[in-house]
Amino acid sequence: MRLELEDVRIAYGRAEVVFGVSLDVAHHSFTCLMGRNGVGKTTLLNGLMGVLPLKAGAIRLDGRDITRLSTPQRARAGIGYVPQGHQVFPYLTARENLAVVRDRAGRGDQSAVDDALDVFPALRKLLGRPAGLLSGGQAQQLAIARALVTRPQLLVLDEPTEGIQPSIILEIEDAISALHSSGMTILLVEQYVEFALRLAQRYAVMDGGLIVHSGDTASIDVAGFSDLLAV
Amino acid sequence: METTLSNLYIGVTLASILLLVGLGLTFTFGQMGVINMAHGEFIMAGAYVPYVLQTSVLSGARGGAVLVAFPLAFLVAGVMGLVLERVLLRRMYGRPLDTLLVTFGVSLMLQQAAKDLFSANNKDVVTPTYLRGQWDLFGVTLTHTRLFVLLVVVLTMVGVWVFMSRLAAGRRMRAVMQNRELAAVSGLPTSRVDATTFFLGSGLAGIAGVAVSLIGPIGTATGTAYILSAFLVVIVGGLGKLRGVVLAALLLGTLNAFVEHATSSTLGRAAVFAFVILFLQFRPNGIVSFRTRGLAV
Lengths: 231, 297
What we know:
The complex is a heterodimer. Chain A is of the alpha/beta class. Helix content of chain A is about 30%, strand content about 25%. A six-stranded mixed sheet of chain A has the order 6-7-8-3-9-10, with helices on both faces. In chain A, helix 3 packs parallel to helix 5 and helix 4 crosses helix 5 (about 135-150). Chain A is globular, with a radius of gyration of 17 Å. The model of chain A has no long low-confidence stretch (mean pLDDT about 90). Chain B has one domain (about 10-235). A two-stranded antiparallel sheet of chain B has the order 1-2. Chain B has eleven helices and two strands. Chain B has helices spanning about 1-30, 40-55, 60-85, 95-120, 145-165, 170-180, 180-185, 190-215, 220-235, 240-260, 265-280, and strands spanning about 135, 140-145. The model of chain B has no long low-confidence stretch (mean pLDDT about 85). The N and C termini of chain B lie far apart (about 40 Å).
């Protein structure tokens, strides 16, 4: 699935935060979006998902304009979104967290849950536990698994390593890498530069609500704009 | 001993009504956070349903009218709630004070509409023959009507529990109430779920209305009499927690019954309020609260 953002502008009331971002995430590609805190990365993703309205610009999925679709409609169009902060439905069990998305529009396919659990087998032992009692790493794995249950063609992850212990980060890295290898298009927002660059083929760096650098990760000069990536 | 048992029975029956009224609020107030002051008028609407049936299409089968009234009142009150949610409240989520004022206005309009339709005089729903009579057990008089109301409460509770914990629609409802934004980005139809929640919560008020009509006269203020206590039950129970609502209804119902028996009905209500104020100092999240690893509970 190809994602195109065209001259996207987003504002909180009168305060504009994203000033005309254009980004082309090619079919089957892996793109990472980097930048310091407060440069507009999460705001851009919220605009992509329709959580925040666009002030101007357009969003297309495989050429189809989704700018006017509601948030749930965008998700159902094929975007699997893992928001920042390992978010789960805290009072639902881990099993219910997956089932509720499986059955989001009528009775869903259990094999989608099984496939998601194959990506994070450690979750199988935790299925009966309320998700609010999971550790940060477990909750993040559940959050990614939940997005996978929708069988997305485009997976969008917002800082999946934030606050997660190193061993779980490695598991998440392996999982994301395998998902990409299986053909999924991935857009990763990440401040952990080494993690992002190990995985992605393309990169874009945001600063002050704009994309200021972009290119292939193979030829990135991290030292050249380290001030834009410092956390 | 007999007095204690009698008070306990009165407390349980009062609790059952509070529970039925509180169940609906568990959805709209406990789960969605909407303070719907018109919820009492949905109870009133439900209470008028058996009266209308008994005085019109089912005047020849008054006993059957009561049974038909339960599902019909659920539908009538549910549709009223649905209309309120779609027309007004959906534009006001996250604005509790505006919601409070608007629903208070709707409540007054519905009461006036009921006065215009049925007059300001109280009406009686004729008790079906199968509910007339009583049993005496250890000196306590168990009227068939109150036992029937208890049965309705139990069946409704079971129905709600099955819906919320076993069915996909109930799971969707819980997910949306716990994290609306996450539900939306996960593709759950949040707007439709809101409408369903309001329909269900309001429909339960309709069932409560029919139950209320069986234990006394009904009028345009029928809902108002119960609504405040029902809010207390939901708050003391722990917002949105079914188990908590059951416990809170039993606690407040029996407390009211015992104090009322020893003193007066006014002091009975005062005791309930005093208890709630004290209770919330020590357990501000209610009887049943669930802690997560996060700071927010």
